[in-house]
Each structure stands twice: as C-alpha cells, then as structure tokens.
Design brief:
- Strand 8 (158-164) and strand 9 (170-174) form a beta hairpin.
- The protein is of the alpha+beta class.
- The strands form 4 sheets. The protein has a 7-stranded antiparallel β-sheet. It has a 5-stranded antiparallel β-sheet with strand order 5-6-10-8-9, covered by helices on one side.
- It has 3 domains: 3-87, Uridine Diphospho-n-acetylenolpyruvylglucosamine Reductase, domain 2; 94-205 and 431-442, Uridine Diphospho-n-acetylenolpyruvylglucosamine Reductase, domain 3 (2-Layer Sandwich); 208-415, Vanillyl-alcohol Oxidase, Chain A, domain 3, CATH 3.40.462.20.
- It is 26% helix and 23% strand.
- Helix 8 crosses helix 11 (329-339) and helix 11 (329-339) packs antiparallel against helix 12 (389-403).
- Bound molecules: flavin-adenine dinucleotide.
C-alpha cells in the first residue's frame, strides 16, 4: 500500500483494499463474468461517514468513482479499471419498525437480507426476484418483482433516502426535504449521489403465499401465450404470472425426457388467500397439456429465492430489454421464433407482468417514467465460455431488434448493457430534461458518470 492509500486508510473507518491485498480479487468480482476490471483502490465502507472521505480522495487523486451495491448490474457499472470503488458489501443492516411498517436499509443489503429482516414481522415491499441482487442499484433504477402489480415499483415505496452528493454534503431526500433530489433518485440511478440509507414503506405479506411453476411443451407456445395475454387482461392484482421460455432445467417434477428441451413456463405468484388463489389459477391449466407443475403454499421468502439456482454469479451474461403495453401477435411470433433457436442452454426470454399499481402513478411523479408498461421483456443471454460470446450476443441483439417495433415507450435502465448510452434519454422519455436540470444542480461536473449517465 502506498503512502496515499495509507493516509486514506487512516481517514476511513472501513477497509482500504488495493491490488495485492488477499481479498482484492474476491472484492472486485461482480455478478456478470463478462466484466473483469481492476480498480486502483477499493474503499469497503463501514459507515456513511466513509463516503465523503472516499469522494474527496478520488477527486484529489483524479480517480474515476464507481459505487457497488451488490454488484449485479449487467453493465458492470459497479467497477472500473484504475478508479476508486466505493464498496458497500459490509453495510447490509436492515432496521425494521413493525409499528410504523418502515424499513431503514443500508446500501449493501441484498434482497435476501432485506426479505429475511422484514418477513420476521410478516412484512415486505416489492423488490426483485433473485435474492442476491442489491437493493441499492435495484431501487435507484426503479425495481419490480412479484409484488409490483399490487404495491407498485420499489421506488413507489421509497419514503426517503440519505444521500452524499458530489460536494460531500449529506442530505435527506424525501417529499419534504430536497424534493427535487428525491424525484431524481427514484429511477435516475446513481447519477445524483451516493445513497447511504433507504427508508421503505412495508406491507403485510404472507408469510405464506401461493406460488410455483407450470411447464408446457414449447410446441404449445403460441396457444399458451395467446391465452396468457387474455388471462392477464382481467386477472386481479394479487396474482402475478410471468412467462419464461428456455430449456427445461432438471426439475424433479418434470419427466426426465423433458430436461434440456425447450419449454414455456408460467411462473405464478398469488399474495392473497391461498384457497382463493388456487381457484384463480385453475384456468391456467387449460392453456395446454403441461409436462408438469409444482405449485403450492410456501413462505414468501422461499419463493423470493426460487430462481437463485438459475441466476448464480460467475457466468457470462448479456441482456436486452423492452417494455410493452400490450403483447401483439407479431411480438408473440418473434418470441417463439427466437426462443426456438436459443444459442446456449442457459439462455432465456422472460416476460414479467407489471400491470397494476405502477400504471396508476403519473409518469411525471418521479424520474422512472414507464408508467404505461404492462409487461417487461428481458432477453437474457447467458453462457459459460468466451468462445460463445459472439453467438449469444448476436442472438440477443437480433431478438431485441425484431421486437423493437412492438415495444412501448421508455426502457428499464437496470436491464441496459454498457453500450446502450443513446437509449438513456429515451428511457426517461419526457422526464429526461428535468433530470438534466437536477443533475446540473447536484453534480455539475458529472462526478458520478460511470452509470446509465444523465449528462449535466
Ligand atoms: C440475476 C438478476 C436478477 C435481477 N432481477 C431483477 C428483478 O427481478 N427486478 C428488477 O427490478 N431488477 C432486477 N435485476 C436488475 C437489478 O435491479 C440491477 O442489476 C441493479 O443494478 C442491481 O443492483 P446492485 O446494487 O446489485 O448493483 P451494482 O452493480 O452494485 O450497482 C449498480 C449501479 O447502481 C448504482 N448504485 C448502487 N449502489 C448505489 C448507492 N448506494 N448509491 C448510489 N448509486 C448506487 C451505481 O451506479 C452502480 O453502478 C436483476 C439483476 C440480476 C443480475
């Protein structure tokens, strides 16, 4: 460690990690194995006061700054070569006030940490579907999951945040304090400062919910999708059904002959009375002749981890995503066309259902503007070996292009890859200009620019 890093080490309460440190390589790893970058310094923060110290050090030494929540971002924006990474992995405490139904959450918290803490009180708020994702990045981009139809996006449940801005000020952002900053961080990503605490509204959920999978033969994809489209038009908001098209994993409830074959899966989640849910989902069985199903009452926090085995860190990943306000026939045909030529065994296409509470929030209420999105599509290319990069990436790009004419406005910044810079303004649609103005106010020099960047 050089003299300057030693000085930094004396100023922060957390750890300073530099190349050569035994934990350096582990700490610089992120979810997407396509990203292999070597920062000059990592500040593993112990508390919020370490953040302004790290920012000053980076400025004084002309270092680029990145911020890492749980390192899940597909673009790898948590890390850069030769810069300073603010790492929150040790700040993952969640304090719950069950009376007020509030959670106060540190920025290194994963969704699994969060769900575990709030479910102790039978509470939850909408977050994503993979428990190792970070709540920080997820929230700053919008955040959606199984509870979104009923309770909105994660940001719709954000009450306040503690923010360290580019000049080192520590501010509260809420409807009443620095409301413009609060407007911007709800969807505007890491552009406006470093969040050191999130305060969320919680709702009674579970602890048992009804959830599971129905797996249909790929040959029945068109009939499943057209019936899905009809069914989701009138299904209550307690029910959320997603579509996944991929090769069948070796799930014990599927005949062995189906393992590794293309299938179309309905992933089903119902948050109301279990018996009522069973009645509501019965018609899904008539969508086709299912290979098998595994559905039942289970703890909410178990279902929140159900997809973890398919989404482990360390594989190569490339994503493309669109929002849809409706699923027209041509879009469905493209889905089937591309799901029929998956380039690797781990690639998948999923459609998540958003329709509900999120659509009732005006597009101008906060930075995230895609309030007409009823579905979100993610083309999830995933593979193991570098030699497969080209075929997996070109498949995802071709599919994205083929479905572009049917997409609705906006885009989900949390699913955007590094090269989509020109899509950022489109993602925020009519809110973009206001974001630029707020960026000028809080970060005129664009200190926080290694993200889906809003240029001041
Ligand atoms: C397997 C998987 C499943 C997913 N499922 C969902 C899902 O169901 N729903 C959904 O909405 N999204 C989902 N996502 C997308 C996810 O929301 C984004 O990848 C998000 O960026 C992850 O947050 P993170 O903190 O782990 O990311 P990181 O890579 O650590 O951070 C991403 C960026 O967020 C910003 N950031 C992070 N922390 C802070 C902070 N404290 N202050 C300021 N800026 C910060 C920085 O710009 C950083 O570069 C999923 C991602 C993966 C990989």
């Amino acid at each position: 460690m050089n003299h300057l890093n030693e000085q930094l080490s004396n100023l922060v309460q957390g750890r300073v990690i530099v190349p050569g440190d035994p934990s350096y390589d582990e700490t610089r790893q992120i979810w997407n194995a396509m990203i292999d970058r070597r920062p000059a310094v990592i500040v593993e923060c112990a508390n919020a006061s370490d953040v302004p110290v790290a920012l000053t050090y980076a400025r004084d030494n002309n270092l680029e700054i990145t911020v890492r929540g749980a390192g899940h971002n597909i673009a790898g924006s948590a890390i850069c070569d030769n810069g300073l990474m603010i790492d929150f992995s040790k700040m993952n405490h969640v304090r719950v006030d069950p009376e007020k139904r509030r959670a106060y959450v540190e920025p290194g918290t994963t969704l699994g940490d969060f769900d575990a803490a709030v479910q102790q009180h039978g509470l939850a708020t909408p977050v994503g579907i993979n428990s190792t994702t970070g709540i920080a990045g997820l929230t700053l981009g919008g955040g959606f999951g199984w509870l979104t139809r009923k309770y909105g996006m994660t940001i719709d449940n954000l009450i306040s945040a503690q923010v360290v801005t580019a000049d080192g000020s520590q501010l509260t952002a809420s409807e009443t304090e620095n409301p413009d900053l609060f407007w911007a961080i709800r969807g505007g990503g890491g552009n406006f400062g470093v969040i050191t605490e999130f305060e969320f509204r919680l709702h009674p959920v579970g602890p048992e919910i009804l959830a599971g999978l129905m797996v249909f033969p790929f040959e029945q994809a068109k009939q499943v999708l057209t019936q899905y489209r009809k069914f989701t038009k009138s299904a209550p908001e307690d029910l959320n059904v997603w579509v996944v098209m991929r090769q069948a994993p070796p799930l014990p409830f599927l005949p062995e002959a189906v393992h590794g074959k293309e299938v179309i899966v309905l992933a089903i989640f119902y948050v109301g009375d279990i018996k009522e849910g069973e009645k509501l989902i019965a018609p899904l069985r008539d969508f086709g002749n299912a290979h098998g199903e595994h559905i039942g009452a289970q703890p909410y926090s178990d279902w929140q981890q159900a997809f973890d085995p398919l989404l482990t860190a360390g594989q190569r990943n490339y994503w493309k995503s669109h929002n849809f306000s409706e699923l027209c026939d041509d879009a469905l045909d493209q889905l089937i066309n591309f799901a029929g030529k998956l380039p690797t065994s781990q690639c998948e296409i999923f459609i998540g259902q958003l329709a509900g509470a999120s659509n009732r929030v005006p597009a101008s209420a906060m930075a995230y503007s895609s309030r007409d999105a009823k579905f979100v599509l993610n083309v999830h290319a995933r593979w193991e070996h570098q030699s497969e990069d080209e075929k997996a990436i070109s498949w995802a790009r071709a599919f994205f292009k083929a479905t572009t004419p049917f997409a609705s406005s906006g885009a989900y910044v949390n699913f955007m890859t590094a090269e989509e810079g020109d899509r950022v303004s489109a993602a925020y649609d009519t809110n973009y200009q206001r974001l630029v103005e707020i960026k000028r106010q809080y970060d005129p020099d664009n200190l926080f620019h290694l993200n889906q960047n809003i240029k001041p």
